[in-house]
Predict the 3D structure of the following.
Amino acid sequence: MPCCHADFALTENSDAAFTVGMPTFTFGAGCLAEAGEHARELGMKRVALFTDATLRHSPHVAAVSTSLRTAGVEATVYDEVAVEPTTASFQSAARFAAEGRFDGYVSVGGGSVMDTCKAANLYASYPAEFMSYVNAPIGGGQKVPGALKPHIACPTTSGTGSETTGIAIFNLTDINAKTGIISRRLIPTVALIDPDVTATLPRNVVAASGFDCMSHALESLTARPWPRRLNPARGATRPVSQGANPFSDGLATEALKGVGRHLVRAIRDASDVEARTEMMYAAMLAGIAFNAAGCHLPHGLSYAVSGLVRDFHLEGYPAGKTLVPHGMAVVLNNPSVWRYTAPCCPERHVHAAECLGAKTREVKPDDAREAGEALAGRVIELMRSAGIPNGLSDLGFAAKDIDALAAGAEPQWRVIRNAPKDVSRDDLKDLFSAAMRYW
Ligand SMILES: NC(=O)c1ccc[n+]([C@@H]2O[C@H](COP(=O)([O-])OP(=O)(O)OC[C@H]3O[C@@H](n4cnc5c(N)ncnc54)[C@H](O)[C@@H]3O)[C@@H](O)[C@H]2O)c1
Ligand SMILES: [Fe+2]
């Protein structure tokens, strides 16, 4: 019985239960064609269809639009979503939603599109000053007052798992830091996960979003166990993300096996339908897992990297904009973090390395150094096979940037405190230093 595992032993003040939220999801080739039926079932008559400018003329948006039309559901398209959304892009989308008075929402896109749609639905349903719903302490952390309008989320990337989460992430331009809005109310009502969408994915997007998925699973497995989380709220106030738990462990384990077998194949060959389908499935599993367990250091550190990068662009992402894709910023901190967290739960690090395909027979499961090396080493192998930059220095960062990076990670205490140990400002500096170069 996994709840009896020593990691999950209850303490005097700990919460004795955990809560898992997720949408009703459909997984399978061609399921985008079901969008209209689901919309009608949910009582939708006039919906806002969110996408981005690249996907607007894609077969995926066409499939969903046709399905909605056939079902007699009127759809107004909003394609001004920013890739890696910002304060301004969330606010424009919210204005569009409020003015349109829609009775439902459909999103067709990656994490950027789905997150923007969640935020637009929220502000149109329960208007409020923009910062009020944003996570405390950066924003007001105000509770979402009630149910939102129904939302059908159709992911087109294989990584964020946003179709399953109550999380909407954006770059808060004022402080140049990523933050978000988190509530179970934001979880889409229905997710239509159609692996056919991956046929058009650029390889860099498969790589970045695939490593995002990998990190969601690794962070879920190694997060502070739920009975030991620092916020012991119970019942309806129990947070969305509560720390590692038996349910997220199971999903994260399966997701890592999928990533270990299929990520590199999916990146290298767009016609490898099996690999791309399996990555879509892994992303969904890892999304449900990390929504319940929470992310920690790799995500917390990544937000400083994406906020402070001076000049970087990757083919496959919109031109003319300095942008480190989210999944790339996340994976660049991974090996450094696993070497640091391994002493907290070495056997979980070895288990994760094994799921990802590492040969771990010689690794002593209670040896923290060997455990950290096993996982860091396997992640580095995958990064090299995928053509990921060799640490933060390949993005233009140097030793002189360490203080700024550590300061940039400071607003991320909400996720950082979900790490399996307490982290100081000096620890953050050490983690960034160790992430500069890996091979
Ligand atoms: N809400 C959550 O739970 C959650 C979790 C992880 C990440 N995120 C956020 O999601 C965002 C990243 O999302 P993402 O990695 O899915 O990428 P994305 O939505 O930013 O899209 C990246 C690029 O890929 C293109 N694209 C997407 N699908 C395509 C397809 N099928 N064919 C061709 N091109 C396609 C897009 O047009 C865009 O140019 C970040 O803002 C990140 O912070 C959110
Ligand atoms: Fe992520």
About this structure: The chain is about 45% helix and 10% strand. Residues 48 and 395 are 37 Å apart (CA to CA).
